[in-house]
Amino acid sequence: MTAVNLAFLGLGVMGYPMAGHLKRAGHDVVVYNRTGEKSEKWVAQHGGRAARTPEDAAAGAEVVLMCVGNDDDVRAVANRALTTMKAGTILVDHTTASAEVAREVHAAAKARAIGFLDAPVSGGQAGAESGKLTIMVGGDDPVYARAEPLLVVYARAVTLMGGPGSGQLTKMVNQICIAGLVQGLSEGLDFAMRAGLDAERVVEVISKGAAQSWQMENRAKTMIADQYDFGFAVDWMRKDLGICLAEARRNGATMPVTSLVDQFYGRVQQMGGGRWDTSSLLRALRSAKK
Question: Which residues are known to be catalytic?
Answer without folding.
Answer: 171
